[in-house]
Write a structure and sequence with these properties.
By secondary structure, the chain is α+β, with helices and mostly antiparallel strands. 18% of the residues lie in helices and 27% in strands. It comes from Zosterops lateralis melanops.
Length: 304
């Protein structure tokens, strides 16, 4: 061990000395193994260099990873937290704090890290405010029961499934989380608007018509590509003859006047109104102003 000495007066017996800046008659020196050295000579002869900053280390030395470090220079390679007093873990040649090591390990295993205890989650995680946790770190805000991964979040609180269901809050059929805003009711389930999507292109329907097959929903384009023509009226795949009119497909029995429900064929005269066919007889009963607008629209489309 070494120790600092402060001496004054006659210094001829000292091997070296450093003048004190405030009093040239006072000198600092270090004593090591019975010998006295000025600070510069002591550093050159005995003090290790910090692997991080390259400066001499006088005082506490951290020996790790086959190098010497100032305590404040020995930090986690990822988050830069000081490791001197909390320990570290070797990870692929790096020195990491335990939370960072756990995150790296979990990433390699395809698992989650609990945001509360920073340990790997081996079971199904509980997702709270978009972060993963061990379920048993929380209790139901209503009954106090220890939670499982089936817990539900509502207005910043966590509830067990029975308590949550008693509140009557709908659960999204896609993400299994509560729906607090607008609800889409389709296919016997309830959905977040953004989660009710085409099974092929994954685009939200946003109120547009969807087509169902074997428990999945499809937009018209991909349903037709995958399964054939769909009747615009009954929303079913057309198994027999197809009536192609108004840029849509119809079952023979479904192609009818949308006003009087009279069956139509392509030989009958009809007019398009609200994207549906209207027979000539019903069209004649329309107000004159409406017929003028429809005629003008048809002429505009014809010129295009």
């Amino acid at each position: 061990m070494f120790k600092y000495l402060i001496v004054s007066g006659n210094t001829q017996h000292l091997c070296c000395h450093v003048p004190h800046p405030s009093n040239p008659q006072i000198f600092f020196c270090l004593q090591f193994e019975g010998r006295k050295y000025c600070e510069h000579d002591f550093q050159m002869l005995f003090a290790p260099c910090c692997h991080q900053c390259g400066e001499f280390i006088i005082g506490r030395v951290i020996k790790a990873m086959n190098n010497s470090w100032h305590p404040e220079c020995f930090c986690c390679d990822i988050c830069q937290v000081v490791l001197a007093d909390i320990g570290f873990v070797k990870n692929a040649g790096r020195h990491l704090c335990r939370p960072c090591h756990n995150r790296e390990k979990a990433r390699g295993l395809g698992k989650y890290i609990c945001q509360k205890c920073h340990a790997i989650i081996d079971e199904q995680p509980l997702i709270f405010k978009n972060d993963p946790y061990h379920p048993d770190h929380f209790n139901c805000a209503n009954c106090g029961k220890e939670l499982t991964a089936d817990a539900r979040e509502l207005k910043g609180e966590l509830y067990c499934l029975p308590c949550h269901d008693k509140m009557g809050v709908p659960i999204c059929g896609a993400c299994r989380r509560p729906i607090e805003g607008r609800v889409v009711n389709a296919m016997g389930k309830q959905w977040h608007v953004e989660h009710f999507v085409c099974a092929k292109c994954e685009k939200p329907f946003l109120g547009h018509r969807h087509y169902e097959r074997k428990g999945l929903a499809y937009c018209e384009t991909h349903y037709n590509q995958l399964f054939g023509d769909v009747c615009f009226h009954c929303n079913r795949v057309i198994e027999g003859d197809v009536v192609s009119a108004l840029n849509k497909a119809w079952c023979v029995n479904c192609f009818a006047c949308s006003t009087c429900n009279t069956k139509l064929t392509l030989k009958n005269k009809f007019v398009e109104f609200d994207m549906k066919p209207v027979c000539k007889k019903c069209y004649e009963k329309f107000p004159l102003e409406l017929k003028k607008r429809l005629k003008k629209l048809a002429e505009t489309l014809g010129r295009k």
